[in-house]
Structure formats: structure tokens, C-alpha cells
Amino acid sequence: MNNHKQVINWGNYQKEIADNNYYYARSCIRQNFFPGSEKTFLKILRQELGKNVFDDPNHTSCTGIGYHSDIVPFETTQTVVARQFSLVNEAGFDNMAISCVTSFGLYNEVLEIWKEFPETEAKARENLKKATGRDFQIPKNIAHTSDIIYKFRDEIWAKKKYSLTNKETGKPLRIVDHIGCHYAKVFPEKGVGGAEFPKVLSGMVQSWGGETVDYPERRHCCGFGFRQYLVKANRGYSVSNTKKKLESMAPFKPDLIVANCPGCSMFIDKWQYVLSETERKTYGQNDLGIPVLTYEELAGLVLGYNPWDLGLQMHQIDCEPLLDKMGFDYKPEDKYKGINGEYIGEPIKFDSLYTCV
Amino acid sequence: MVNILVNLSSLIVCTLVFNEIEKCNMNTQKTIVTIGAGIAGVESSVALSKLGYRVILVEKDKNIGGKINNYYHLFPNNRPAVDIKNYIDEQCRIHDLTIYKNTEIEKIQKKGERFSVTTSNDDILKADALLVATGFEYFNGQQKEEYGYKIYDNVITSVDLEEKLKSGKPITTVQGKEPKRIAFVHCVGSRDEKSGNHYCSRLCCVTGVKQAMELNNRFPNSLSYCFYIDLRMYSMEYESLYRSAQEKYGIQFIRGKVSEVSENKEGSLQIKAEDTLTGRPLKMEVDLVVLLVGMVPGSGTEKLKSVSALEANKHGFLQSADWQLHKNSSSQPGIFLTGTCNGPMSIDETMEHARSAALEVHSYLQNHSEK
Amino acid sequence: MNKFGFTTQESRTIDYGQFDERLLGYVQRHEPSFFICMSCGACTATCSAGNLIDFNIRRLSLLIRRGEILHLSNEIDKCMLCGKCTLVCPRGINTRNVIMLIKKGISEIKQLQN
């Protein structure tokens, strides 16, 4: 517990984010939910911004999902994290770019434990040495990939093809930003803007022409706790939390939701379908759902990438209404065509699905 | 025979008078510099002036009186604060106190038993004792981000509310509505690890109840809700204010610290707290939120700590030499404390503290002149 | 249509916006001393029924003041009307009368509903 009297002025707080030479630590499950996001991140950083990002095939899951579900013991997780660090050192990098918010929270948690209890760090070193023969050093800078996009939001804006405005009315799009709990709630100083008013996503939205929507349940968790939703009987708990958020934001009529955590994006997207089926309620306009995007997809749209390359066809809530609002030039007929132009199949349409176009 | 008797008696009278004059002259040779001309500084200085000392007051603002200038009505008896202001103005006039306004202290040095005080006007004042009356500031509500002060329009502090009540102008929400539901949040910046202030600021609870009653007078159809952790209604009269707040004004008291304030579409505010006495979370929509901010050491106190060797206690207020017996003596001999630079206190407590300070100074100076 | 195997849960937050004032209004009109309860708990501490079963008169009084009056008639019937709470109340509230009024108020509201 800190006893310092010095209080941080969160409004002006800027955390340290490295500006080049990143080791990319991918997410284990994110590519299943939103397949285009990580690819888009790499494309933006390498091609648009000319940055050096190392994509290592040797790294593994951080085991955060296992740790939080009580399947992987904490000591094992620490050793896996130590191995990740060792891989970063081996590749010759000092900066990590972490794709998943749970991962980001886990790395910070492990580092904090090692700082307060040095014997655990010593044990992790010993375990790693015995298991793999590796040594490691803690990387200098650990940032979440949304931090990096936030850092370069002006550079991305400079290359924009579309701004986040409603082409018909000329007004900015009303965008709800949802921050993953492990990003800033656990360690406020590890999030841009602190815990109460995090700026990482709202900064992006505002730089790209959109309008941030503040609503009463903005800070509320979406309910994606591994313990809650892994067991089916508990899922009511999870969906009730997302429902609370959706009920609270609906009067503000948002055009889209952007989230920086893979779990949150997945939940808020897919639970809208469940709620439409079980409670016959939708929260967007015209009886449709509110599209949920990841920040990479949002950046990709701003840069004018093909929405089907971004993976928007995999979303539960269809994004075409949003694309039409933005005046985006895309080919609707290509939605279910794969890389070679082959038909990849499409989801079954149910009789009373409110959320599809 | 009569002539000798008259001469003898007049000689005795003359000697007695001469002794008294000499004593007064000895006192008037002693100078005290009072840093701060709020009610504590003035009351102590007046008492010392009555004892025959020469007192110079140095005040950083353009007016004397400090915070009393901003208050509307005082608890517990609803007395207009301007009464106290008039009182100190009158006392300054009667005792012809020397007051340097718009002046700060830049340096304090001690040579032997005398002090040299350098002011921001480059004057050097010599003193035999110093009286610190630098007062307090209000906790900056913006530090409690979760309450949305200066982020959401209809969140104000008790200081803002007092100003509005005093100005006589209509009190409305920013949207121009008459407030129907008002929430008072207790312990803002006090008893709070996250703000760095662990202490209780004592006066905020009774201020909240007083302001809730005042708002109820202004808007008889409104309802006020006080969200508290503990209700610190100490002293003889404050408990009866609590009772009459419930009985006559219908003010509701909900035990639970407000965790966050958010804004609804129309500009009304949503509060989340736990109703600890029923053990359930509670949410409420209100038109106005009033943050009861505590007292923290004043900027003058902070400045003084940097230009002198004065010690502060762990809460940042100036440390007394002895809690029970020498409250008004500081950690430095010859420097004395009066008023809220020593800790949060109400106006009546400040006046008592101030008079006690004057007596401490007097006793110190008497001891030193006999040496 | 529940093919999911789970449903959403009701919130247990007291929503002050959904305040049912009828019972509170009735009690306060007939026993104005109810206004000055400070929830000190002395009544519950001495309660004859409360020391044997789950009956908490302090909490019930507070729930009425939050407009939460569902399931109250079952609860309030647990009171033995012994009057010990009235003896001990530091604010001098006629708690026994408050309880009688709650019972009467509930039956009046039920009659109006039927």
C-alpha cells in the first residue's frame, strides 16, 4: 500500500510508450474472434508508419487465461512470462507491444509481484533455467498495442481516407469507448489518463473526427471474467453486466462501440445477439445492434482499408450500416469471399434475428 | 501640614503611575509580527495590542478577514458571517493596528532573541515574537476524479454553494432548472488515503447539514440527501441541528461513501453508493451534487514552512509544542500559532484559539524581558 | 426460446428512481417522529423476536424509507409487539406505533389494489 502524499494529476498523466522497435506479443484467442485485427496492426505499423515490429513464431500464450481460470498455477505462469521476456531479449528488442489486455495486465501483475517479492523473481529465473536453459532480462518498456496506436493517432490521421463523421448529416459519429478492466483499473499508472477517465481510446476517437460518448455505466465491467463465462451456468452473470452497459448507453444513441480488449469486444458484440433472442431487445437505432470494433479495425477504416480484409464479416453485429453512414466505398458482394475470391460460407439466418441487416 | 500630605500622596500616585507607564513602555517596546490578517490573526493581535504591545500584521490578500469574507450564514445559530467581519474591522479601527496588505513573507531570520522578517516589499521588520496566522485552503475537488468536479457541470463544492447562497442570485442547475434532488457527499478529500489526507476535517459534516437546510429553505419542494461515512456532529449544538434537519427539513441521511458520479443525457447526475445499513448497492439520480471538501494547510502555511524551520505535523498543519498544555506554541521558540494553520477549527474555536495564542505570546515575552 | 442455458439476472441495486412512497407516506403522516430515526440499531439489539429469528426492525424501517416494500407483510408479522424497542430508542420514536402503522398501511394498500 502506498503512503505517499503526492497525488497524481490524472488529467495530464502520460505514460511512457516506446516509439519504435517492438516485439509483438500476440493474443492467443483474439485471432479467432477478430481475425483481421492483428494483421491490420502489423500493416499499419510497418507500412503506414515505417516501424520495426518483430513477429516471433516462437512465443506462446502468456497463460493469462489459464491463470485466471485456476487451471495454470501462478508459478507456471511466471515462468512462461519469464520465457517470453527471454525471447524478447534473444530477438534483440527492449520494447514489447502486447496485443491482449489480459496479457498486458498479467505482465504488469507479474512485474509488480517480482518487485515486491524478489524471491518469486529468483524462483522464476531458476525454473526457467531448469526447464529451458534460458536467462532473461525485464524489457525496458511494455506497452499495449492500443497505447501505440494512440501514440501515433495524429500520424494515422494524416493519412486518412475517411474521417469518423456521418456523411449525411456532417456530424461526428457518436462513439462509445470501452476500456478493458485489466488495462487501467488494476494499475492506474499503466494506463493513459489513469483509471477514471482513460484517454487511450477516446483520444483516438477525438483525433479521428469522432465524438466520445460518456454515459453513466461507462466504467462498468463488461462481465468478461474467465471464471464467469467459462462455465455455462455462470454466463447469466456475464451477460447481465453487458446488458447493464447497453441499457445505459442506448439513450445516447451511439453509432459504434470501440474496445481495446479482445474479450470485451467479443462480449459486447455477441451478447447483443443473445439479448435480442432472449429478451427481444436491441440497443442500436432502427432495431439493429450497435457495431463493435477493435481499435485496429477503427484505424483501418480511417485509413480506408477494405473492410473484409479487416475481418468485419466475422462480427456478430453487421457493420454495413456503419460503413454506409461513413460513406465508405466498399463492395458488399465481397463479404463472404475469401482471399482467393472463393465463397467461405456464411452464418445461418434465424427467423427473428434483430441484429442482422 | 495639609500641603505636606497632599505632596506626599501626589508623590505616591505619581510613582504608581510612573511604574505603570514604565511597564507599558516596556510592553510597547516589544513588537510582534502577525503573519496573516484573517480572524485569528486579527483577534490575537487585538488582544496583544490591549496588553500594550506593538503589533504589525502582514496580509497577502488585498482585504483582511480571510475566509470569513466568503461565508453566508454561520452554524449553529444561522448568524450572518458579516457580523464577524464587521467585528474584526471595528477592532482593527479601534486599536489602530498596522496592517500591510498585498504583502507576503520572503524570509525569516533570528539573531539572538529577535526576529528579522523580510517582506515581499523588501521591508525588514524586527520582532520579538512571531504569530503565525496563515490559515487554510479547501481541498481541490478536482483531485477526486470519480466525482466529476469541473467535468460534469452540476457537480459543485460546498465552497461554490456558499458563494451562490451569499450572492443572492438564483441557484439553478446549469440547464436552468430548479434543483429537486440534491446530494451532499461527505468526506471529500478527508479520511481518504487516495487524496493523501487521513484526518477528519471536523467541520464539513455540520457544514453539509447547514447547507442542506439552507437549500431546503430556498427550495421547499426539494429533497436533500447526505451521503456520509460517520456523522461528526460534535459539540452541544450540532446534534440538535442533525435532529432538526431530519425532523423539520426532511433531509435524508444515507450511510455509504459515494463511489462515482456520472452524467445522464439531460445533465442530471447518477450517484452510486452502498446503502450500508441495508447492505445493498444504491443508485440515485439527482440534479445537483455538492462535494463537502475538507480543510488542508493553506498556501501561506506551505510558504512559511519553506522559509522558516517551523515543523509540520504528519498532516501538513503546523505542529504544536504540546497538545494539552501549549497548543499555541510552535516547534520554534518565539513563534506562535493561531487559528487554522494549526488544524481545522470552526469560527468560535478559532476565536478561543486566537485569544489563547495572545496569552502565550505575552507570557513568553514577559519571561524574556525579566532575564 | 431459451436455447442458451442461462438468463440475465435482476439487479439488486436499490434504484431510488423507482421509489414506492405509499407506505412511507402513510406511516409518516400518522407518526411524525419516524422522521428522526438515525438507524442506530438499539431497537434491533433489544428486539425479542429479532434475537431468535431473522427479523431486523432497523433494516425494515430503512427499507421503507427507500421505497422497498415488497414482501414486507410477511416480515412485519414477525414482530411480537412487546414494546421493548420503544423503551430503548434514544430519539424517542414511538416504534411500536410505527410497526402498527406499517401493518395497517400494508392492508390499506392491498385493499386499494383489490
Question: Can you give keywords for this protein?
Answer:
heterotrimer; A: 357 residues; alpha/beta; Glutathione S-transferase Yfyf (Class Pi), Chain A, domain 2; Rossmann fold; four-stranded parallel β-sheet; 8 strands; disordered N terminus; B: 371 residues; FAD/NAD(P)-binding domain; 2 domains; five-stranded parallel β-sheet; 8 helices; 25% strand; elongated
Any overview of this molecule?
Chain A is of the alpha/beta class and 357 residues long. Helix content of chain A is 43%, strand content 8%. Chain A has 16 helices and 8 strands. In chain A, helix 4 packs across helix 6, helix 7 packs parallel to helix 10 and helix 12 (235-249) packs across helix 13 (262-278). Mean pLDDT of chain A is 90; it is low at 1-5. In chain B, a hairpin with a 4-residue loop joins strand 3 (73-74) and strand 4. Chain B has helices at 2-29, 39-50, 81-94, 158-167, 204-218, 235-247, 299-307, 347-370, and strands at 31-35, 54-58, 73-74, 79-80, 98-100, 105-111, 114-119, 124-127, 129-132, 136-138, 155-157, 181-188, 223-228, 252-255, 260-263, 269-275, 280-286, 288-293, 295-297, 335-337. Helices cover 34% and strands 25% of the residues of chain B. With 371 residues, chain B is an alpha/beta fold. Chain B folds into 2 domains: 2-135 and 298-370, FAD/NAD(P)-binding domain, CATH 3.50.50; 141-295, FAD/NAD(P)-binding domain. Chain C contains 6 helices and 1 strand; from the N terminus they run E-H-H-H-H-H-H. In chain C, helix 1 packs across helix 6 (95-113). The longest helix of chain C is centred in the last third of the chain and has 19 residues, at 95-113. Chains in contact: A-B, A-C, B-C.
Instruction: Estimate the mean pLDDT confidence of chain C.
Output: 89
Q: Unreliable runs of chain A, pLDDT <50, ≥5 residues?
A: 1-5
Q: Report the oligomer.
A: heterotrimer
Hey, which two chains have the biggest interface? Answer: B-C, 18 and 20 residues
Q: Assign the CATH class of the largest domain in chain A.
A: Alpha Beta
The count of DSSP E runs of length 2 or more, i.e. the number of strands of chain A, is 8
